[in-house]
Amino acid sequence: MKTYDFIAMGGGSAGFNAARVAAGLGLRTAVIDGARALGGLCILRGCMPSKTLLYMADVLHLAQKGKTFGLKIPSARADMKAIHARKTRLIGEFASYRVKALTGGKFDLIRSHARFVDPHTLELADGRKLRAKHFLIGTGSKVSTPPVPGLREAKAWTSDDVLDLDFIPKSVIVLGGGIVACELAQLLKRIGARVTLVQRSPNILRDHSEDASAVVQQAFRDEGIELFTDTKLQSVVEGRGGFAVTFLNQGKRTVRRAAHLFNALGRQPNTAGLGLDAAGVRTRPDGQIVINRWQQTSAPHIYAGGDCSGPHEIVHVAIQQGELAARHAAGVKGLKPVDYSLLLNVVFTDPPLATIGRLERELTEAGTPFLVASYPFNDHGKSILMDANYGYVKVIAAPKTGRILGAEIVGKDAGELIHCFSGPLAMRATVFDLLRAPWYHPTLAEIITYPLEEIAEKLGGT
Length: 462
What we know:
CATH topology of the largest domain: FAD/NAD(P)-binding domain
Structural class: alpha/beta
Low-confidence stretches: none
CATH class of the largest domain: Alpha Beta
Number of domains: 3
Number of helices: 15
Mean pLDDT: 95
Shape: globular
């Protein structure tokens, strides 16, 4: 029976980076991954394919708005065969790079599924067994199907199907209002589909502020997406002509029909079948693995990271978690847990939405005092000339020192602009520190100075 110091279960963001660090620290390391294709969710079926398609949709949308900018662009439409081919080529290149890293010889790569048979032993699909001193579970997540009558039986699309489209669907009903639902609903609308989005919560993007979600909701409605919020799904029926979805909206029974149905009602940890009970690893009812601040599970030699453990399903967080687990397993001194007070989040809708640090709702619930100021994009020169008038920049700071606690941007290039706060937040900078920096005119970034100045004035600064 082969023995290792460290085994990573899953070759995605958490597992790959844990293995890379563990091997670099001198641990005899292996990665076990039984997926049909190597690369992990982000590269193959998540971040990279979705952003490839979303950027295409942005370019298409701008071309279709040519008249707004005084341009004569007679026709602009999606060629889905060509778009699909470009996406496939690019993702193939990204995946190839990851495969080379996984097979580069720094650690063993074992192409199999595995399950625990005891706290230190894994059994592979072919019956072979492996032992290790430490493990990292990084098996990701899978699409969740809530108990809506008819939904499980219906042949609904998942995000995998939408990201692999090579044709323009006539009409689509999107179930869900989270990040994946919103990003891909807008993509479908922009390539030419008729889109209806049905969200159970009062607002789409419910993990974000009402102000931010209201901006994106308005943009969706302005683009022609039929949007229903605060609903209760009652049934899904698949027939010869497509799908019928019945739901309550404002107390009224409502039915919508479309050629296709996209289930974007969320994901759940992919932990079933791992034999976690045999390993002494505790999970929550939804299968999410319980971890401490060092990524340790209830079995201290077994770690977990990424989507299967949370608390945030974000790639750079999974990387941090995997690296921390490997260093902790190797006994590296002076480690610090992942600092979630610096949490960075981006939604790639148009307008995009981005946040960093501690936000109003969290601070209010904790009873922490704060100052807040915001400034709208529709009153800023650069965004006006770009016809990018949706949204605002919001800055949150400590009431005595002006130290920046967090920021929220919904508007043009929010995902890029939010990084103006990354370094300052990590360095515990104040609004006065940022105002000492130069901000070039005319740029989108200089809009950030307006809420900074407002907070500085409240604090009696100049």
